[in-house]
Amino acid sequence: MTPKPLHSAKVPRRGRFLLVTLAAVLTLAATVSLGRWQLSRAAQKEALQAEIEAQKQKPPLDQAEFLALEAPAGALHRPVRLRGLWLTPQTVYLDNRQMHGVPGFYVLTPFALEGSDQAVMVQRGWIQRNFNDRTQLGTVETPVGIVEVTGLIEPPPGHLFELGKPAGAASAPEGEGSSPIRQNLDLEAFRAETKLPLRTDVSLQQIGPASGGVQRDWPAPALGLEKHYGYAFQWFGLSALVVILYVWFQFIAPFRRSRRRTYDASSL
Q: Is 234 exposed, middle or buried (0-12, 13-18, 19+ CB in 10 A)?
C-alpha cells in the first residue's frame, strides 16, 4: 500500500487552525468592544452623578427665580426655597415605596405658592406602612398658614409597574375611588381631578431632618453604575476565556499530543 503524502494531512489542520484563529479574533474583538462600551456608559453615568451633586451644592433659588423658570429641566436637583400654603386635603400617599428596605408610603402634598396662581407637588417624605391594616395611615403633621419649604427641584414622581394599566396613568386602589392611597400619580391627571393650578413639569423633594412624622432619607437616583460595571466584567471575562481556550486548543493541547506520540514511539 502506498502511504499518503504527509502534507495532505497538514493542509486540513492548517485550514482549521486559520478558521479557529479568525473566529477567536472576531469574538475577542466583539467582547472587548462591548466591554469598553459598558465602561463608557458607566463613565457617562458617573459624569451625570457628578453633575447632580454639583447642582445640589448650588445656592437655593428663591421663589421669584423658580416662578420665572422657563426650562426647569436645566435646574433639576438644584435647591429652591418657596413660601406658601399646604393644601392638606389633597395629600396623596404613594404605596409600595421603600426607605432603608422597609415598605411604606411617600407622602405628597400640593403646595400653593404665595403671591402666584401656581401650586407645586411636594414630595414631603416617607412613612411606614401599618402591616395589620394597609389603609391605616400614620399621622403626618402639616403646618397651617404661610410656611417656608426648602427642597430639590426634581422630575414628577416616578411610576411603579402596574398590571393591566399604562405606566403613565394616575391610579388609586381598585374600588377605593379617589382614595389618597395611590400606586402611582400622574400630575396631569391629578391636576384635572383636583382642578388645582398645579405645575406638571416638576415636583419638589423636601429636604432636611425628619419632621411632621415623615422621614427624608431619600435614595440616590438609580443610575445603574453597578450594572454597567458588572456587564463590563462579564464581557472582559469572556474575552479572557476566549484567549485561554484559544491558547489551550491551538498550542498547548497539540503540543501535548505531539509529546505523547513521541513518547509512545520511543517506547516501542
A: middle
Place of cell 403633621: 141
pLDDT tens, residue by residue, 133-185: 878 888 888 989 999 999 999 999 888 766 555 444 444 444 344 678 999 99
* Residue 93 contacts residue 107 (beta carbons within 8 Å): yes
Selected residue with higher pLDDT from 112 and 220: 112
| Pair type for strands 92-99 and 181-182 | parallel
